[in-house]
Amino acid sequence: MSGRTAQGPRRGWRFAGGRSGYASNCVLVRERSQGPVAVQTTGRPAAGANTEAPAVGNALAGALREALPAGSQVAVRWRDGRGLYGGSELGADAQDRADSLLNGSRAACSEQRLEAAWDLDDGTRVSLCAHAGAPLTAEAGAAWLALAQRLVGAQLVAARAQARAESLEKSERLQQALYEIADLAGSDLEMVDMLRRIHGVVGGLMYAENFYIVLYDDVRDSLRFIYFADRIDPYVAEPDLEIRAAEMPNSLTLALLRHGEPLLGPSVAIREQLDVPRDIAHGPDSEDWLGVPMRREDRVCGAIVVQSYDRPDLYGEEERALLAFVAQHILTALDRFRAREELERRVAERTQALQLSNRDLQAEIIERQRAERLQRALFRIAELSITSETLERFYAQVHDVVSELLYARNFYIALITNDGEHLEFPYSIDERDSTRESRRLGSGLTEYVIKRGQALLADRSRIAGLEAAGLVRSLGSQAHCWLGVPLFRDDHVVGVIAVQSYSPAIAFTVRDQELLTFVAHHISNGLARKQTQDRLVAAHSELEQRVASRTRELAQANAELLSQIGERLRAEQQLTHQALHDALTGLPNRSQLLERLESAIVRAQRDVRRQFAVLFLDLDRFKLVNDSVGHAAGDELLVEAGRRIVNAVRGDDTVARLGGDEYAILVDNIDGLRVAEELAQRILRALGEPCWVAGREVFPSASLGIAMWHPRYRSGAELLRDADAAMYRAKSAGRDRCAVFDEAMREQAVRILDLEADLRRAINGDGFVAFYQPIVRLSDRSVIGHEALLRWRHERRGLLVPSDFIGLGEDSGLIEEVDWLLYAQVMKQLALGGEGYVSVNVSPRHFRAADFADRLLRMIDEAGADPHRLRIEITEGALLDDVPRALRMLRTLRGHGVLAQLDDFGTGFSALSYLHRFPIECLKIDQSFVAGLVGETRPESVAVVRAIQALAGTLGIHTIGEGVENDAQLAALRELGCAYGQGYLFGHPAEAYSTPLRQAVSR
């Protein structure tokens, strides 16, 4: 870029007489009777000329001439020890004579000519010549010469002292400027603010209104203008923008960087010197231009440039030296600033890494403590089933143990009576229902579990959904969360064990369900004794109960029939209204809203300037109102919320209730998103006003999502979907606020869709492969089999393990298809022949399918594989989920030669009472116990593994230790009697093998 200029007063570092570092020879011509002195400038001497000559000469001329007659001429000349000249002349004759005296001529005096030459104490040589306008006496001439010598000496000493003072002042100002630059480099200012202040500091040292800083990368041959200030040039610096040198070949700045030395003078002259063509794209030309490179270890890494557009000869050698000195300090300041930024970035990264590591460590500690506590409880329950004196005592003790593992303050056991028509409750502890009377089997949650033969984990919303579907009917106090599992005897459901919570702060999990399922199997053994004792007592009353129960059912059915007839007549009258309106609030329902949305979309497609928005609103913590003061109060709050929303919107807006505590508002014909946001805030403020519900003051709030119309939408349902997504974003951000659906939400949804599409394409193609990990005999490390492990060879992301996509596969239901693809590859491998077996993992999902065993056997036959070389690995959860079905499948597979192994044994519930019932060929000891055989947890892990080995020995099955990674673990397993092992010590999972399965593993 050519140059930058400015107007205004000049501050500091300026010498009289042209460019700094030069002094003009001055000729002072003034008669005694005349007015102002005229100064004539002659030439530009070399750098370092005496700059105080004009000022001192003028002072001497005025003083010495006053003591001579009118018309006199005076010339004073001097030369210091460094060879610098100066002086003042009044008349050409006197000037020539003074120069001769200064160069060594002898002085002579007469009546009209007075001359002298002498040396001062500092070595300065001085000459004086005067031509008097009238004759003088010898005394007067001598007196004038003596006075002149003293006056000249005094004036020169004073001028030298003033010059030294000015130099000292300049040095102090320079030092202060450098201190300010150093302070700015260590401050917390942003880069732009720091450079702006550095510009101000440089402007205090020289003319720098047009000023810029450029950084240069000589390896990449590129520039970055990190600061730019100019009065004329409109260029705006972008510090992060990298400009290739090839993009600006005619730039004077680039020429300076490649030249590597300071450049000074008019930009036209510099361009001619460096052979740089004129290019108007790089800014206008400058009358004076000064550029100084910045260096780091003899490499040019940038430059600082100042310039003037309308004032020539503004910069000199002194400004060049000053700017070069300041440039290195500015480079140091930039380096310190970048070093500080890099340090802060690294500290932030390290802090985040430490936080993540600490979180993972805490999670691992909690999980290990939970597993140890669970394992102790499981063995205790197994012991109680044998040692409890009575069934009632057993129930109480089991309740105590369950209470240590999960929330069981409300706990009961329900049994089907011998007649199969009633429920009795031999054990019940409850905060609200102190007693539970026997009842006829109906449509309660307990009966629902009995009918399905499967566990049920339901919160209030799911219970409400079952009630709405007519599947259950709540009895007794309504629970916030309910968990019940069936009790089996001889593959038949005989009762239910249940826990429940009345507080929204307490909810049960899937793990709690698995635990309670395990407990139920232990209770089943005691139930057999109890039912035998009670059978005779129950037989007598069974007939009477059945007759009474049947009579009540008939009466109830008759009453319900009459009620349904009347209800149908009323329903026909209200059908038209209910089809388009919400029954509770009278507001439009979803169907009517979708119709109006379709109309709004049509209008917007016709008129591109027309805009509208959909607001999706959900009341915060509405369930708390239902649970605390009842559904009636909740309905009252829903009606009040609908009324407030209607009052807050415009007259032509549509307010609809979609169901539950969800509302939607169609805001049509608006001027943009701002109108929708203002309306959303008005609705939230209206809803936030307190109201009285069921005698209580309630402060409702809501979360609201906004979706603006965009031509990409094809239906109102899509708009509702995106507004709903934005509402959930607002709710996750803290509730009582609104959020706008943006492209980030859309991109996240698109990424999930893309991954699901990739998963489907991989299923249809060859994206999934089987990797095999060897299973060895610990005594001689010979391979006896392999475990087939699933891998996905993604076309862009490379090889993925199941944890990278299993969640999406389970959500989409595609994971079962992936498993079958893996099974097919294993069958083909087995069909090639060889020795040893291959085991495949089977999830509980497959065990829920009634045709799993038949389908697997057909696949074996079609591939021509040997079924005796196939093993399936299942978890304890799969066995307990549906015991009768699991038994049938395992027996069917075993009958055809396919054996079953129990995977991750010891981490689940390890039911000792049921394990002997299943045809299990092997127990695989979980790797957490194997890892614990070495280190601080050795005693506990040894006890667990020894117990597992004892159990396996009693059942006549063998064990496999998983996750064996070192010789110490191998030695511990062999010492405990474990015969087989699997882990990285013996081999990592690898793709399809080409050698026979049975082979020696190198030590």
UniProtKB/TrEMBL annotation:
Q: Which residues form the EAL domain?
A: 752-1003
Spell out the Gene3D superfamilies in the cross-references: 3.30.450.40, 3.30.70.270, EAL domain
Origin, by domain of life? Answer: Bacteria
Domain GGDEF residue range list: 610-743
**What PROSITE patterns would the database entry show?**
EAL, GGDEF
Q: InterPro entries from the entry? A: Biofilm_reg_signaling, EAL_dom, EAL_sf, GAF, GAF-like_dom_sf, GGDEF_dom, Nucleotide_cyclase, Rev_trsase/Diguanyl_cyclase
Name the Pfam families on file. EAL, GAF_2, GGDEF
What is the name listed in the Swiss-Prot or TrEMBL entry for this protein?
EAL domain-containing protein
Organism (species): Lysobacter silvisoli
